[in-house]
Amino acid sequence: MSLQDRLTELRDQGLADIKSADVLNKVNQIKVDLLGKKGPITEVLRGMRDLTPEERPKVGAYANEIRDHLQNAIDHRRSELEEAAVNAQLAAEKLDVTLPGRTVPQGQPHVITQIITELEDLFIGMGYEIEDGDEVEEDYYNFERLNLPKDHPARDMQDTFYITKEVLLRTQTSADQPRALESHDFSKGPLKVLTPGRVYRRDTDDATHSHQFHQIEGLVVDKHITMADLKGTLTLVANTLFGDQFDVRLRPSYFPFTEPSVEADVTCFNCNGKGCAVCKQTGWIEVLGAGMVHPRVLEMSGIDPEVYGGFAFGLGPDRFAMLKYGVDDIRNFYLNDVRFLSQFYKKG
């Protein structure tokens, strides 16, 4: 058999093998077997040394033609298999756009955050500024500037976590108020500030107490401020959160930083003032403490109490949330149970 006949045979056999190859690995292996350095075509070309000088160019040209033919066939078959693989993958992964979409659960503000935001919006509308103080505070501002000097017995009710002898986790957001009094320029108008935030006390955790809770305190200082202004403000707060069918009453109380001091009660939401187990048959539920700013607090900030006066109040949004929604255990707010918390989301 001549070399040309042998090359023709190899071409025909190679084309048949390439056409029948159904995976890329087989195509690659055929290329190595046919066109590699140890392949049959290379072996045939080694026999050209036995040809006459006139035959060698013809056989060489024919061998190159067959090599190119086989290489083109391999490239074409490889492209076909790659395209088929892509089409198969697309067919397997295609999406049916006519199917209904899946609803993605949307988050919501925590119920206490909702209460705080609602109150902030209310007081901003009345011209108050929102102050966000530090949770780590000096004893001087947390107690002394609020008329609670060292060893004052009222400090026992606010026993807290001390970092050093003079630095602690604040027990009340009232600590922001002396700083506001120091920096305010009364020639530009009255001081009206709201201070929401987290506070800490060494309370025993139970259904109505927590060592960590939230507080919102308000302070107004100007000329001619009276107890009537305080009650009007608290009535507006109660009506905003609980509805305008509720009334507010003030009872005498004691706080070192206000004089006179009062406890504010609202009509019991459970019995509407008729008396029940929730309000202990009184028809009222205590919601916050308040009073007229103590003259000593004003004096320590360099403000003349004979000219200026004001009122202050403090409320717990945690407790307000309990009252508003009838929650009987404050710890439920901090368990991160979405089933519980999602009940209180009010859209819009």
From TrEMBL:
Residues 190-323 form the Aminoacyl-transfer RNA synthetases class-II family profile domain. It is an enzyme of class 6 (ligase). Its EC number is 6.1.1.20. Keywords: Aminoacyl-tRNA synthetase, ATP-binding, Cytoplasm, Ligase, Magnesium, Metal-binding, Nucleotide-binding, Protein biosynthesis. PROSITE patterns: AA_TRNA_LIGASE_II. GO terms for molecular function: ATP binding; catalytic activity, acting on a protein; magnesium ion binding; phenylalanine-tRNA ligase activity; transferase activity; tRNA binding. The keyword Aminoacyl-tRNA synthetase applies. Pfam families: Phe_tRNA-synt_N (PF02912), tRNA-synt_2d (PF01409). GO terms for cellular component: cytoplasm. Binds 2 magnesium ions per tetramer. It is found in: Cytoplasm. It catalyses: tRNA(Phe) + L-phenylalanine + ATP = L-phenylalanyl-tRNA(Phe) + AMP + diphosphate + H(+). One of its GO terms (biological process) is phenylalanyl-tRNA aminoacylation. Mg(2+) binds at E259. Signal peptide: none annotated. Its cofactor is Mg(2+). Coiled coil: none annotated. Tetramer of two alpha and two beta subunits. Belongs to the class-II aminoacyl-tRNA synthetase family. Phe-tRNA synthetase alpha subunit type 1 subfamily. This is Phenylalanine--tRNA ligase alpha subunit. It comes from Lactiplantibacillus mudanjiangensis. The lineage of its organism: Bacteria, Bacillati, Bacillota, Bacilli, Lactobacillales.
